[in-house]
């Protein structure tokens, strides 16, 4: 089997429970308004999740929760130092040239606030997520990445209504026009399964243990033609370890 040197690689991160060590949506309410968090848990099966979080943010605002409260909660959310170290090291390396992409069902404000607090504000070339913005009153207004009143993605793999990460990965690759020698996808959730199916045999998924992506790979991967290498991890230190041990060559496609 012929091989080629890895000159350019793309590393794609999900955010919650992948780059970060918590779920941003749930964390903010657990810290600031456990009553809202309990309600979200009780009715989550009846509503689209992003819409539900947007409603929770309005309720938090009505209870007196401020922009500063939300930012403070995000800045103390668990985020492993080994993950910070690992992504900074691989981005700074001269070879291979590494591009980072974030595909997340969190939102732009949560993600940017946390990244800035960790000194990672320049990590990602693009962040594809649900848009959010502060209004003058301090309310965080959140909406779906895919407008519920517009064309829907119709993903056959079962992506969440607000985003099809597989389509977003394809669109990013088309926009960039770059032939990456290797793509590495770091994820944990069911909605990470669709983009993982797009990966080639020289690519790799770093799948977090004991979460829904692991189950979908085990139950559906072979039947749906999963081609990429699968590496499993439980703690961020293991992702850093895998990054350090990445081979310099991959199988030629």
- Broad structural category: alpha/beta
Write the H/E string, N to C: EEHHHHHHEHEEEHEHEHEHE
Distance between the termini: 10 Å
CATH superfamily: HAD superfamily/HAD-like
Which CATH first-tier class would you pick?
Alpha Beta
Helical fraction equals: 40-55%
Under the CATH scheme, which architecture would be assigned?
Answer: 3-Layer(aba) Sandwich
Poorly predicted segments: none
Describe it.
The protein has 253 residues and is an alpha/beta fold. The chain has one domain: 3-Layer(aba) Sandwich (Rossmann fold), CATH 3.40.50.1000. The chain contains eleven helices and ten strands. It has a six-stranded parallel sheet, with helices on both faces. Strands 1-10 form a two-stranded antiparallel ribbon. A hairpin with a 5-residue loop joins β5 (132-134) and β6 (140-142). The mean pLDDT is 97.
In short:
It contains 11 helices and 10 strands. The chain has 253 residues and is an alpha/beta fold.
Give a topology summary.
Elements lengths: L2 E3 L2 E6 L1 H5 L4 H9 L1 H10 L5 H14 L4 H9 L5 H12 L4 E11 H10 L8 E5 L1 E3 L5 E3 L22 H12 L5 E6 L5 H5 L6 E5 L3 H9 L8 E5 L2 H9 L4 E3 L2
Parallel strand pairs: 2-3, 2-7, 3-4, 7-8, 8-9
Antiparallel strand pairs: 1-10, 5-6
Helix pairs in contact: 2-3, 2-5, 6-11
